[in-house]
Amino acid sequence: MQIRKRFLKDSNLEVNPVRHLNENLTNCIQNSIGGIMKTLAIIFFVIISMALSAWEVGEVITTDYSWTDSNGEYHTLNNLVESGKTVFWFGGEDWSPSSNAAAETLNDWITQQNSEKLYFCGNFDWSSFGYDNLVFSNELNQILEDFTNGYIPLFVIIGNYNVTYYIDNNLDDALFILPQAINSFDKMSVLNPIDDQILVIGDENVFDISELFIDPQNDPITLSLNNNTDPSVVSAFVINDSLYISALSEGFSEISILGESIGETILYNLNIEVYDVSDNYILILDLCNSDNTETLFSTLEDIYPGGNVLMANDWNTFPMTNADAVFILLGIYDDNYILTENEVTPAIEYLNNGGNLYMEGGDTWAFDAQTSLHTLFNIEGTTDGNNDLSNITGENIFAAMNWSYTGTNSYIDQLEPLGDAVTAFRNPDADYNCGIIYDNGVYKTVGTSFEITGLEGSNSLYDAVWGIIEFFELVGFPMDPPQNIYVNEWEGSVSWDAPDSTNVIGYNVYLDSLQVGFTEDLVYVFNNLESGCDYIAGITAQYCAGESEMISATFTYNGLVAEEVLIPQAKLIGNYPNPFNPATTIKYSLSTNDHVSITIYNLKGQLVNKLVDCQNQIGEHSVVWNGKDNCNKDVGSGLYLIRMRTENSSFTKKISLIK
């Protein structure tokens, strides 16, 4: 099963639809304000979540903003909302009140409001236009920068518990929402939300939920567990003011906590993901919150189908202890993460226990302070780089590979290998190293000063990641074979069930230990069987990383009419040498004149080179592949597939190019 940590930002709050404000108001509403009739289509959501990098509708504000307004009164946001007032901020420096009816509309509306329930403040002075009720503060400009999305005017409405609603450009929308917002903030709400949880099997957590909800009337709140969508994944129960959760098995469950006050109820949903980290997983530790982590994830998922690929953005979410490999992403300036000595102990212990660690960072090797972890890579960061990285060439295990580079920026550290470490990646234009590999004998490391997801061109990101995984010796793990083989003795056909893995390329079909075909289907019909003869049918699953074990079945063909010959009409004999460098000879044979194609594919199923595509005579033939693609460019080290097709048959074999 392929699973990952996703950075969860889902809404957690479900409020009673009778008691709370129009959470999904999608029908058109007619409203008259200041004599103006407009049709409003408002989608209004009440959401409470943790604060993100930019304010969103329904967020809880944790910053205590302060300002002095035009009445000479000093205010803090917390003091206003704790006094039961809804705060209405207006911003829009380029919106001229003299040419817009909004000032008059605002003035009229505010005059009619209960000052005990509402506080209004704009960010510029309208008193010269006769609107003295429109309180303003120049200090509001800086505050509103936290909310703006680039459009003006901007209306920010803040109510009890510092929950925000905001809209742009339409004053009528703001004035329509305000009365409802004022009323809604008198209702029961979430005060201290709980983060969605990422757990591993065996974790046991206890959460204090005594202040999860709040009731403005201070009525007592009864807490209970409303639902657990999958009790096999987590056990959950509420005792008094505590929520107890135990992680039981890999999967996902949603926990619903019910709060009940006098005449009012509220639900809070907590999402929980549980992972098995006992063995067979690769961990991506994205400390810089890169936008490209999913790209690396999907690439590793293709190359490493035998285990889980997990993602986290902190050291504590998943243990490294049993990981087959760890990828630490530190980013490129100015979105880079700087490692400190007090946090790297888990990675050091992981390496000293035989781990495999990849680490990338544009400044981590030369510009930033070094930690004890850096020294284990045997890398010397010689210079903080210039803006000069546009091409990368491979060396050692990446020999003859070439990439163009499109990372976040091209200012990267220049590297030199120490001791037994060797260069793996190099900037050919500026003549310096940007990637080093090191086999310590106990552990293995790969350190780069560029973003691996920025590699493209003649070779691909897939080629680079494949090389790293191969260096870490992770391409040989067991791959699930097909299941439940069945032979129809009258038709001479074989069928089977797919393995549990989702990363199967196709299936190799064997007859008496000789490969006679390759198919992506779950059934295959044999040719040239002789009635009354015994055969052994065999099936293997083909993965990116290799071939599974064979499942087989012995059968007697009972067809009434014998086929022309017992042996296949064509045969892909194989190649020699294998592994090879720089060329290999591929041999094949035909028992009749036939049209033949011999093609080379990489393990992603992409065509690399077409060697033969013509009519051939009966007999044995050979063709040489020189390790180049259709554009006569050298391909990288790794596994490739030879595919032979005739009019009635298809064969596939693996070959290995090592440079």
Question: What this model shows, in words?
Answer:
The protein is mainly beta and 659 residues long. It folds into five domains: 21-186, Glutaredoxin (3-Layer(aba) Sandwich); 190-275, Sandwich (Immunoglobulin-like), CATH 2.60.40.10; 315-466, Class I glutamine amidotransferase (GATase) domain (Rossmann fold); 478-567, Immunoglobulin-like; 569-659, Immunoglobulin-like, CATH 2.60.40. Helix content is 10%, strand content 39%. It is built from eight helices and 45 strands. The strands form twelve sheets. It has a ten-stranded mixed beta sheet, sandwiched between helices. β41 (594-602) and β42 form a beta hairpin. α5 (293-303) crosses α8. The longest helix is centred in the first third of the chain and has 14 residues, at 171-184. It is elongated and about 100 Å long. The two termini are 33 Å apart. The relative contact order is 0.07.
Q: Could you tell me how far the N terminus lies from the C terminus, measured between alpha carbons in angstroms?
A: 33 Å
Task: Write down the CATH topology of the largest domain.
Answer: Glutaredoxin
Please report the first level of CATH classification, the CATH class of the largest domain: Alpha Beta
- Strand percentage: 35-45%
What attributes does this structure have?
Glutaredoxin, 10-stranded mixed beta sheet, 659 residues, Rossmann fold, 5 domains, Immunoglobulin-like, 8 helices, disordered N terminus, mainly beta
